Amino acid sequence: MTNLAYALVLSAALAAAYNPAAAQTAPQAGQEQSPEALLRAGIENLLRALGLALQSLPQYEVPQINEYGDIVIRRINPAKPRPLPPTVEEPRRL
What we know:
This protein is mainly α. The chain is built from 3 helices and 2 strands, in the order αααββ.
């Protein structure tokens, strides 16, 4: 399972690092970059993409067993706040 997660993170990072618009633009006069600079920029983009991918993964607490025998796994940082329960309206009197 962890190999699958690593493969997904790596493929997402590579997809995010590839910028087709930048690949199609030609360098302007006087702005030719050395291979080392291009490699550094590519690695920086890859590390930034990996960081964003890791931040988007949900984090969980240690599983606990409650008094009924249910296994409860709570999220540490829920992505969205829970919606408020619907309010019950009183029937209107005529």
